[in-house]
Write a structure and sequence with these properties.
Blueprint (H helix, E strand, L loop, with lengths): L1 E10 L2 E12 L4 E5 L4 H4 L1 H11 L8 E7 L11 H11 L15 E3 L2 E2 L5 E2 L4 H10 L4 E5 L3 H4 L6 E5 L2 H8 L12 H6 L15 H13 L3 E4 L6 H7 L9 H14 L14 E2 L7 H5 E2 L4 E2 L1 H4 L4 E4 L7 H5 L2 H6 L1 E5 L4 E5 L3 E6 L9
Parallel strand pairs: 3-4, 5-8, 8-9, 10-17, 11-14, 14-17
Antiparallel strand pairs: 1-2, 2-4, 6-7, 12-13, 15-16
Helix pairs in contact: 2-3
Length: 362
């Protein structure tokens, strides 16, 4: 018997829909996943089998084939565990555990499964919610941990799930899960406190004036001075005098941090200007973004905030060279054979360096 469950995945910082098709047929008991899955997706079969059995359901002793469509796009991550398990329970010929199959068409399912059936959090819940809105899907079942993050998108009903058994009962109409409500305006206005503040700096009038002018105009800054003169201290406090993030800025910044998995626990939006200070041994890929599965780099994580390069002269020349294009265009484009991805990179660059030893200070 065949079943179809809607899911989604993230490519870059944007999402796309995935059709999780499950076929259960007669034959030797096997479990195969097709559709260009990566190692994490291939290993989902062991998690799904254990989660189904430990949730009180019988796993079919037949040939199980899972297809992740479209098949020509690489699938990565563990967010397909929940839709695969739901698809298997709906495709069982004898005594299917999900009886209301038509209701499956209304929802998008995302979530990683623990071996005991608990639904674990995933990366990229916010980009997925934004993508669903574009495709006209208004309901999604997500891990309870990601409910706040996904519910900031207006027009999407987010149903938090804690276990696989809870999801099955909800689809069958045995229990009711209320949509998670979240006020995005209230979240964005609550910036919370910061560990540091620009007002704490005593003296340094010339340097403070320079940073205030730079913050007002969005200019880049380089500070040169002896060790201990306060370059790093001033740079860390620069985001506190920048204008507060607007809701659209917070949404775009949160998308990047959500994809990388850097969204702070208990936070649904990044409400403070980012401050990124990579070490001078960083590679150009880590700074600019990329990799086998392209991910945002430090310049994108600093989007709408500050990128601080301490000991700037110690960075490799090729690393500094790759900063030219994002500083001019405010975007990073990563090109691969099959596709091209763009990451936003609008940031203030602040550099700090010790002066040359031959310079005499008056």
């Amino acid at each position: 018997m065949l079943s179809r469950v809607i899911s989604a995945a993230v490519q870059g910082i944007d999402s796309y829909l995935i059709d999780v098709e499950v076929d259960i047929s007669a034959g030797l008991p096997t479990f195969s996943t097709v559709g260009l899955p990566d190692a994490a997706v291939k290993e989902s079969k062991d998690r799904v089998v254990a989660a189904v059995r430990n949730s009180g359901f019988n796993f079919p002793a037949k040939r199980v084939t899972v297809n992740l469509a479209p098949a020509d796009i690489k699938k990565e991550g563990a967010c397909f565990d929940l839709p695969i398990a739901v698809g298997i329970l709906a495709a069982m010929e004898k005594e299917p555990k999900i009886t209301n199959v038509e209701k499956l068409k209304e929802f998008c399912f995302i979530g990683e499964l623990a071996l005991n059936g608990v639904v674990r959090p995933i990366k990229g819940a916010l980009p997925i919610a934004l993508g669903l809105k574009k495709h006209g899907i208004t309901k999604m079942i997500v891990p309870a941990f990601n409910a706040d993050e996904a519910s900031v998108v207006d027009g999407i009903e987010v149903f938090p799930a804690s276990t696989l058994q809870e999801v099955v009962k909800f689809i069958n109409g045995e229990i009711e899960i209320m949509p998670h409500r979240h006020s995005p305006e209230g979240v964005c206005s609550d910036t919370g406190g910061t560990d540091v503040d620009f007002s704490e700096v005593k003296g340094q009038h010339f340097a403070k004036r320079a940073l205030e002018v730079a913050a007002a105009g969005g200019h880049n800054v380089i500070m040169v001075g002896p060790p201990g003169s306060g370059k790093s201290m001033l740079s860390k406090r620069l985001p506190t005098i920048l204008p507060p993030l607007s809701f659209d800025e917070a949404l775009e910044t949160t998308k990047i941090h959500s994809v990388v998995g850097l969204l702070p626990p208990g936070k649904s939006l990044v409400t403070q200007r980012p401050f990124r200070a990579p070490h001078h041994t960083i590679s150009n890929i880590a700074l600019i973004g990329g990799g086998s599965y392209p991910k945002p780099g430090e310049v994108s994580l600093a989007h709408n905030g500050v990128l601080f390069l301490d000991e700037m002269t110690e960075f490799h020349s090729d690393v500094l060279d790759v900063l030219r294009q994002p500083l001019e265009d405010h975007v990073v484009t990563i090109s691969r054979a099959r596709h091209s991805l763009s990451f936003p990179a609008y940031f203030m660059l602040v550099g700090a360096s010790n002066a040359c030893g031959c310079v005499a200070y008056q």
